[in-house]
Design goal:
Blueprint (H helix, E strand, L loop, with lengths): L3 E2 L1 H5 L5 E4 L9 H7 L6 E2 L2 H4 L15 H10 L8 E4 L7 H10 L5 E4 L2 H7 L28 H10 L1 E4 L3 H5 L16 E2 L15 H10 L8 E4 L5 H11 L5 E2 L3 H5 L11
Helix pairs in contact: 5-10
Length: 270
């Protein structure tokens, strides 16, 4: 089963739990967008509160503990035996974090609405302002379902395999840094902006095109690969694109915000 789902497929899947994962770096709050209109039956999932622990030395969006994630998902109605579909309005860059987190904590059936809200609208399907009644779910969090990297493991992978930097190229080069206190990238990492994983309309490139893209970056079968970004949100999108290409990858959840929390870690620019 593909990790992606089309609007038509979702419309024919009435038993799915649907999570609206809209979010903006610096705002506005995604819940305000949710209230303006969302898929029928969808529940708002907060990237900051539901998909991450409080920020700190572990980064701006560190991995929540199993108990906290389980509690959040049950409150959103997520069940072990029901498919979860996640969507956003930004090329799946934030919905992918929900996909990854659910997969990491052991949910076996998670799909991303390819093209998100725009694809839904293009298919002529309606939105609503009505909020569903949420029945508490029975999801049980079982951590370890997806590979992760620590800072030291990411540093090693940058020399022994391929470590992809999913941020915009100018942030990788250290020309700008709108959020974190230090600009640059992990030495040895390869610039691979996650926005290049999608085409017009925010839909993912075909698997063959994704394989070609990653091959040009040094990622091939048998090569260990990982991804990071600013805080482990858009890097999950990179991991999803790699999975679609048939290339399993690890996520450095703490990402750049965790890397620069330790001033002894080296920083590369250019």
């Amino acid at each position: 089963m593909s990790a992606l789902i089309t609007p038509a497929e979702l419309a024919a899947l009435p038993e799915a739990s649907v999570l609206d994962v809209r979010w903006r770096l610096g705002g506005p709050p995604g819940v305000e967008l949710y209230h303006e209109g969302h898929l029928a039956g969808a529940v708002f999932c907060d990237v900051d509160a539901d998909l991450a622990a409080p920020p700190g030395a572990g980064g701006r969006h560190p991995l929540p503990d199993a108990a906290g994630f389980q509690r959040a998902m049950r409150a959103l109605g997520v069940c072990d035996g029901r498919t979860v579909v996640v969507y956003d309005d930004a090329g799946s860059t934030t919905a992918a974090r929900a996909w990854w987190a659910l997969r990491y904590f052991g949910h076996r059936s998670v799909r991303v609405l390819d093209g998100g809200l725009a694809a839904w609208a293009e298919a002529g399907l309606p939105l609503t302002k009505d909020e569903p009644e949420i029945r508490p779910g029975d999801f049980t969090a079982r951590p370890g379902g997806m590979p992760t990297l620590t800072a030291d493991e990411a540093a090693a992978l940058a020399t022994e395999g391929v470590l992809l930097d999913a941020r915009a190229a100018e942030r990788y080069r250290g020309e700008v840094e709108p959020v974190d206190p230090v600009a640059g990238h992990v030495p040895g990492a390869v610039s691979a902006p996650t926005t290049d994983n999608v085409g017009p309309g925010g839909r993912f490139l075909a698997p063959a095109a994704l394989r070609e893209r990653f091959a040009a970056l040094g990622v091939e079968e048998g090569v260990a690969v990982g991804a990071y970004c600013g805080s482990g949100v858009t890097a999950a999108h990179e991991v999803l694109a790699l999975e679609l290409a048939g290339l399993p990858a690890a996520l450095y959840v703490g990402s750049w915000s965790n890397w620069v929390a330790d001033p002894s870690r080296p920083v590369a620019t250019g």
